[in-house]
Amino acid sequence: MSHPAGYTPLTTESVPAWLDAHPHLRALVPGTPLHVREVGDGNLNLVFIVRDDPGRPGLVLKQSLPWVRVFGEGWPLTLERARHEADAYEVYQAFAADAIPVYHGFDPESYVIAMEDLADLRIWRGALNDGEIHPGTAAVLGRFVARVAIHTSDLGLDPEVRKHRLAKTVNPELCRITEELVLTDPFAGHERNHHVPGIEPLVRELQGDDAVRLAAATLKHRFLTGAEAHIHGDLHSGSVMVGGGRAVAMDPEFAFYGPVGFDLGNVWANAVFAAVRADRLGRPAPFRAHVAAIAPESWDAFRDELGRLWPDRFDRFYPDAFRDAWVARTWDDALGFMAAELLRRIVGFAHVSDIDSLEEPARTSAAAACVRLGRRLLLDRAGIPDMAALGAVVAEEIGRG
Ligand code: SR1
Ligand code: MG
Fold first, then answer.
1. Residue 35 carries which DSSP code?
2. Would you say the pTM of this structure is higher than 0.90?
């Protein structure tokens, strides 16, 4: 595959010279020698931690590869995803600087993003897998989604400005991944899909059900056409870092103008993965309560922040009743996208360690609970009006074993 001029994938050996050629970034790690580690453990990119003192935070460089990292060169993917991530950080830092890493800039020739070395933080998924409690994380995420919802939409921007923003953030290749991996393949079947053998009857039932197909297709269409705000687009627990009293959302390379409920639904589905795992491992009650509170705390924070920002909306033609209807629609979207995330992480291509690292028979029973819950949310979410009802449905499916 040919690359744009100036692009070469970095290595731990080549990073120091690259930094020397970017003096404003080298100034952030001025000492010598530089210690460079490649730590990317996501599905897509290279991530380097660069320090001039191994014991102190330095700088993180994230570079897109021209393919999907976990798949290799057989799955080409645009380098432009780094630009989309950089654009999102630039926008978010204006109103949600507390909820993202400190952003140091983007190099468009080598597709490298420079940002804070979050030395005291770890990936939220890993922390949850280990039974760690990081209070306040859900509220940070709920507030973040609300700020994005207002500040990047027609509720916070002049509609002409919003349209120019939308044009700049059209992200077709990354959206296609979501459209296929999340909103098509789990329901239609695909050779990339895989699942534990014990849930085969549930998968067959899911993929053979016309009502499921219609509900999934309706969600997919909403994802494709619901250009409400400059959403993160991949806000699962692997895209959040926690520690030292902070929580930050990172990896917004899937960002685009989409439905606000998509981000909330991702947070909530990944809270369910943590909850099923905690149940199957018999984690202590305080941890299980912490995980069960992620969805309600994020939803409360979302609504509170939306309410706080609402009086300053750009166009006061929108009455309070519009806000309430928008929140109701976001609730329905969030439950729908929560269902899709629950299903795709169990029967699709990209799975989660919360479930996959369980021993049998817990792994299969956890996977089955997620599929049952996902299907139920997809088909019956109109009968789930609030967080109390959602909590009851989640607990019921987890408890069925
Ligand atoms: C091929 S990319 C698979 C998944 O990894 C990313 O984090 C997104 O969740 C995507 O769906
Ligand atoms: Mg990611």
1. E
2. yes
